[in-house]
Design a protein that fits this description.
Elements: E1 11-14, H1 21-32, E2 36-38, H2 39-49, H3 52-62, H4 69-80, E3 90-92, H5 98-110, E4 117-122, H6 125-133, E5 135-137, E6 144-146, H7 173-186, H8 189-194, E7 200-204, H9 209-222
Parallel strand pairs: 1-3, 1-4, 2-3, 4-7
Antiparallel strand pairs: 5-6
Amino acid sequence: MSQNAKRPGAVILLGPPGSGKGTQARELSRRLGIPHISTGNMFRENVAKGTPLGLAAKSVMEAGALIEDSLVNEIVRERVSADDCRKGFLLDGYPRTLAQAKALEKILEGYRQQNPVVVNLRVSYNVIVERLSGRRVCPVCHRVYNLSSQPPFRDSVCDDDGALLQQRADDREEAIRERLCAYEAQTAPLKELYSHTGRVFEVDADRIPNEIREALSCLLQSL
């Protein structure tokens, strides 16, 4: 694909850990017909495969800290150059820092894209802790469950492929606190950065997933 080809703008989902970005992004990807790009999933796949990138990221992820920008920017740059991103793409978990946002700006300029649509999922602290401590993830398809609000039909087994569900190491209580602190310190300024574009929107994510999904769908359809 030519570097000068015109592409639609990206859609960015912002929100702290536990805001439901992954769950909502998968459904929005299906409805919009564009790929869901999760940096977290890409890094976890590399960790599982034991790649050099995965080995570099493993200890950082298990401590609940954020991976350095250069690694994240490179994996995103490579992913969005794929053919399935020609009609646009949905970013989940990226950018997290001002440096990443600047790198994304250069990536989009390379494809002559306009400013991305940014949707911030607003959620309270108590809801975050409840969601993350009860979260379980399928290691095969990456579908996310919650033991209280979205449990699987069979205990600890994925509904789609029968794989044994896992609790992520960074969903431990002590890691949750570290992740929230890292998010507030490094990611919150992004809302200020993007607020000047006129393409930033907020959605109340304290609600149940179906209500959040409908709010997001209505918002993006209105655009």
